[in-house]
Design a protein that fits this description.
single chain, alpha+beta, 5-stranded antiparallel sheet, 7 helices, binds flavin mononucleotide
Length: 364
């Protein structure tokens, strides 16, 4: 399976399978001189790791990240990047391959089983191999480093919709995101989701979700007008996450139903003499280049395809079969997709920051 690398100057390669001994990534192109600790990376890993509530898979993984190369230890116990490839490893400790024996030949409808067999003729059915979202642990580790490449960058995400239940945006409070198991910024919606997802889970079913990612302190000028649009690369990074079926920037699809006057982000000169935008429908990107406003992206994930309820399918020997998937699955993959979305946006921004410095020579 080729194509395991993304990014141009901040270049991330991930490796490893869901049911192998370990997985990880190599970040090539990380600038020298970035100080960090493994604990800082672990903070992001802990947000994604499984088994943290009854609303996510009960697989138990510590997801301890070990930095193997590309750094020198510092006297304060931290690490500093040397500019050589940063290799990071995460061990798999809680595989249960036998859970997957029933789908060794059967294709789960809505999963990657059928297309994997069509393409490679060989499929690691134990947990889905590389098509398992376990691979995204490595992206979150890379994202932890990417966040440090752009000075002052802050990338946050929240779950804004589960199934048909959307948050009330007037209630948005970032401080609420860590107060519930859903990364929900609306304190009133979290209990609604709790009851709703309990019912979905008990029924052996699953449901989709929408995640919003907001990046603050993105300098103006990142990206390029045609084949290296910042929004294009953010969308590609988000779309590469398992189960993602839609991505939008700023007001996205809603822009199609409003007038030019409503959509225009009007400009004025602020008290400090700098340009000020009066709104941010563009999601912080115009003509593929960052405006200096917050970069806003949203992505939709589909309902988990591995469900307990029987669905019609076929097997690799040409028989019609009924498939129900046992094992430990996320009833709503959108929850754990929140830190993954943050990481993928951070990687796109780090990459564009380095590309901008490379072309313009700007150092701010
Ligand atoms: C965090 C996360 C966890 C996931 N967990 C599961 C899971 O437990 N069971 C499952 O069938 N799919 C799960 N998925 C989705 C599948 O990996 C994905 O649907 C599959 O690889 C097919 O790819 P596609 O949906 O992008 O077409 C998860 C996705 C994410 C982002």
């Amino acid at each position: 399976m080729s194509h395991n690398t993304f990014g141009h100057l901040f270049r991330v390669t991930t490796w490893g399978e869901s049911h192998g001994p370990a997985l990880g990534c190599v970040v090539d192109g990380c600038p020298p001189g970035i100080r960090f600790t493994e604990a800082e990376l672990q903070h992001w890993m802990d947000k994604r790791k499984p088994g943290q509530s009854r609303f996510v898979t009960q697989r138990r993984e510590d997801d301890r990240v070990k930095v193997l190369s590309g750094v020198m230890p510092q006297e304060d116990g931290g690490l500093i990047t040397t500019g050589t490839p940063v290799s990071m490893l995460i061990e798999n400790t809680d595989q249960r391959s036998k859970d997957y024996s029933e789908i060794a030949k059967r294709y789960r409808p809505g999963h990657a089983d059928y297309t994997y067999d069509v393409k490679y003729g060989l499929r690691d059915y134990r947990g889905g191999g590389r098509s398992s979202a376990r691979e995204t642990a490595a992206r979150v580790a890379a994202g932890g480093l990417a966040r440090l490449v752009v000075p002052g960058l802050r990338v946050r995400a929240a779950l804004v919709q589960i199934g048909e239940h959307r948050i009330n945006r007037d209630n948005w409070d970032w401080a609420e995101v860590d107060n519930n198991p859903f990364f929900c910024p609306d304190a009133a919606m979290a209990p609604v989701w709790e009851d709703y997802l309990d019912a979905i889970r008990k029924a052996g079913s699953s449901v989709g979700a929408v995640i919003e990612v907001v990046a603050d302190n993105v300098p103006a000028g990142l990206g390029a007008p045609i084949y290296a649009k910042l929004d294009q690369d953010i969308c590609a990074n988000l779309m590469s996450i398992n189960a993602v079926k839609g991505v939008e920037i700023g007001n996205g699809f809603a822009a199609a139903s409003i007038s030019g006057e409503q959509n225009a982000d009007e400009m004025r000169i602020g008290e400090d003499g700098q340009p000020v935008f009066l709104s941010n429908n563009s999601g912080g990107i115009l003509g593929g280049i960052s405006t200096g406003q917050p970069v806003v992206a949203r992505f939709a994930v589909k309902p988990t395809s591995s469900i307990l309820n029987e669905r019609r399918s076929i097997d690799s020997e040409g028989h019609e079969v009924d498939v129900k998937t046992k094992g430990r699955h996320d009833p709503c993959v959108g929850i754990r997709a929140v830190p993954i979305g943050e990481a993928m946006v951070a990687c796109a921004l780090a990459d564009h920051y380095l590309r901008d410095r490379g072309q313009t020579g700007r150092l701010d």
